[in-house]
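We now fix the convention by which a protein and its fold are recorded. The integers have meaning only within a learned vocabulary of local backbone shapes. The record below shows the convention in full.
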Amino acid sequence: MEIELAENYGFCFGVKRAIKIAEENSNASTYGPLIHNSKEIARLDKDFKVGLVDDFTTFKPGEKAIVRTHGIVKDELFALLKQGVDVVDATCPYVTKPQEICQEMSEEGYDVVIFGDESHPEIKGVKSYATHGAIVVSSVEDVKKLKLKEKIALVAQTTRKVEDYMAIAHYLIPRYKEVRVFNTICNATFENQDAVDKISRNADVMIVIGGKNSSNTKELFSIAHENCPSSYHIEDETELEKSWFDGKEFCGLSAGASTPDWIIQNVIKTIEQIAS
């Protein structure tokens, strides 16, 4: 069986940057999971003594708090600084961008509409920067229910499908006087999604590697499954099943933006053993 990786996969710029920041700040703690990959978080804890704290109020003055790649709520950031905590910001610059847009547009009197998952930490943080509030939507159907002003600013979660984002923009533009659409979907997301779309069209079986709570990995799996019904989302090699590869000739692989290369290589080695 032939095994091939997608042209683009795995760690994005923001994740690489965050991992480097964490490795340079040993004996610190991240506020919330640094990235959506439990295996890599465990490695940082074991090798660099970088722990994980879920409640920001437990940080003490002088302790070091690393802000996760997804960013945090604005008030929580200010509270940490006020508490005298040494804050190390590992927020991805692609996430900082929509935060800044939401604050600026809200202060200029625009209704801010955010396309994304309201429960996702990135969106919780981005929404908090809209001075006069923001509305989070997940589909065109959500938008149809809204009563908005004549001036609208539209931003998207960094890992969303561009086609879904454009559907919302196309609905709003002819119906309101002014709609400002900001491209806040990161380049790595475009590239990884295009690459998984391409390889999954030819694959007999697709393996998508990444955290089960990783938004961008879920999107990659969704695209793969549309093209290749025999697609599977796994976190590591222990989840692989021999039956998935029976009678298959071409196995395609992709990985989410928070998936380290050492996990990807372990998966490839295990598939090679299963298929031999």
The CA atoms of residues 131 and 209 lie 37 Å apart. Residues 93-107 form the longest helix (15 residues).
